[in-house]
Design a protein that fits this description.
Blueprint (H helix, E strand, L loop, with lengths): L2 E8 L3 E8 L1 H18 L12 H31 L25 E8 L13 E7 L3 H14 L2 E4 L10 E9 L11 E7 L10 H4 L7 E7 L13 E15 L5 H7 L6 H35 L6 H18 L4 H10 L4 H28 L6 H15 L3 H7 L3 H20 L4 E8 L1 H4 L4
Parallel strand pairs: 4-10
Antiparallel strand pairs: 1-2, 2-3, 5-9, 6-7, 6-9, 8-9
Helix pairs in contact: 1-2, 5-6, 6-9, 7-9, 10-11
Length: 450
């Protein structure tokens, strides 16, 4: 096809493509379209395939031109992109045309479209990068905390003999907010709300205020919230909440003995076996978390030192995906989630705006990793995948065959291959950047913001 192309780079990894199609191609395309109309047109007074071309041009002239333009644009754009992979449009949004091209069978056809392309980034700047690795030692107290967690997980929840609310009790309450006029605010009413006292897992954070209340007791609580409260809907306000305690329960923790260990997992014969396995698992989790922290630190610095823009359509697709995922977590539809968010005093737009910064960083990190893997031609061998199977089996207390079964489908296997490539990339990068000892940190704090 006889054509000329011209690319112009725009902001946020977008391009403007101008294509000029030779007039001979325009004439040939028009005549082919007209011939097709002649072949298929059915007009009263004429046999099919015998309608004169000039009759069809008078009756369907605009449609014939529009079909010709569409055919020329589709064919030429496909040809341009086939020859220029780096300027292939992203799938998140269709190329846009500000105005339709002028059509004249005796002249070249010129059209201009804009669209997003995959960001171009060369990761060359590794200077001054220092990755600090937190220093974490698993202590006896950490192991005791883990055992307590397992006790609580296997505890029986029973009614408290003396039903007076205390810290760590499991309570059921009814609550409603009282307005300035002294009336209940209907939308704030909630019955049979269950939470653990001291966890802070309730909207109004009234843990301390209900301590000492008895079952079936009703109390009006007045609480003033700090201006910097983490909940912007409460910050700086004073709220009056009416609370009724409906039930007070406690966790009846099982004794830490061999029987408990055997109940948790049949592979344990004694409590000592269980402790040894727990400590091994904690060590594995610690190393995995430390590597995650190091990788994130490295990527944050690479993103900062190697500037590039994220296409608007790519960012919007990521935000839309996060919104759909949040809807799934709430077991509702994206549309219903928006109604829920609006009812709570926020908007979808506000939440998406809050997510934008983190989403941009995540996408840039992903693009940098993909580019480096491609530039360094990092690949994995079947032997390396077999080694990963063995590693995962050892860490998870499974057999290699069980691990292979988990990664049997193509998508899971592809994920494992990609993850192995990333690990090889990081191993290379840590030889090129400075890794130093970071601050001492407890095992609990290591996972605090995970």
């Amino acid at each position: 096809m006889k054509l000329k192309k011209e690319f112009k780079s725009l902001e946020k990894s977008a391009v403007e493509l101008t294509v000029t199609i030779a007039k001979e191609e325009v004439a040939d395309a028009y005549n082919a379209t007209l011939k097709n109309y002649v072949k298929n047109a059915q007009i009263p007074g004429f046999r099919k395939g015998h309608v004169p071309a000039n009759v069809l041009e008078r009756k369907y002239g605009d449609a014939i031109k529009a079909d010709t333009i569409s055919e020329l644009i589709d064919k030429s754009f496909e040809e341009v992109i086939k020859e220029d992979e780096k300027n292939r449009p992203l799938p998140y949004a269709q190329p846009a045309m500000d105005k339709a091209p002028d059509f004249d069978i005796t002249k070249d056809l010129v059209y201009t479209i804009k669209y997003d392309v995959f960001p171009s980034v060369e990761v060359k700047n590794f200077s001054g990068i220092t990755v600090k690795e937190p220093q974490v030692t698993i202590t006896d107290d950490d192991l005791a905390d883990e055992l307590k967690t397992m006790q609580e997980r296997n505890a029986m929840v029973i009614d408290k003999k003396d039903p007076v609310v205390a810290k760590d009790d499991i309570v059921t309450i009814n609550y409603v907010e009282i307005g300035e006029d002294g009336n209940e605010i209907a939308d704030s009413k909630r019955d049979d709300f269950i939470f653990t006292v001291g966890s802070g897992e309730n909207i109004y954070k009234i843990d301390d205020e209900i301590i000492g209340m008895k079952k079936d007791e009703t109390k009006e609580i007045t609480k003033k919230y700090k201006k910097d409260d983490e909940n912007p809907d409460l910050a700086g306000l004073t709220k009056k909440i009416k609370v009724t305690v409906k039930a007070v329960k406690i966790r009846d923790l099982p004794a830490l003995d061999d029987d408990f260990a055997q109940d948790c997992n049949e592979k344990y014969k004694t409590l000592a076996d269980m402790k040894e396995d727990l400590k091994k698992n904690m060590e594995t989790a610690k190393n995995r978390r430390l590597r995650e922290i190091k990788n994130n630190s490295l990527l944050e610095q690479l993103v900062e030192k190697n500037k590039f823009d994220i296409p608007a359509s790519m960012l919007q697709a990521e935000l839309d995906g996060r919104w759909r995922m949040m809807a799934q977590q709430f077991q509702t539809s994206p549309e219903q989630l928006e109604k829920m968010i609006t009812a709570s005093g926020q908007t979808k737009e506000t939440m998406l705006e809050q997510w934008t910064g983190d989403s941009e960083k995540m996408l840039k990190s992903r693009i940098i990793v993909d580019n480096l893997i491609r530039e360094r031609n990092i690949s994995v061998t079947p032997e390396e995948i077999e080694a990963r199977y063995a590693e995962i089996a050892a860490d998870g207390g499974m057999t290699v065959e069980e691990v292979k079964k988990h990664y049997a489908d193509a998508r899971s296997k592809e994920y494992l291959i990609d993850d192995t490539k990333e690990n090889k990339l990081y191993d290379e990068l840590y030889k090129e950047v400075k890794v130093s000892k970071g601050d001492k940190m407890s095992f609990k704090d290591l996972f605090a913001n995970a």
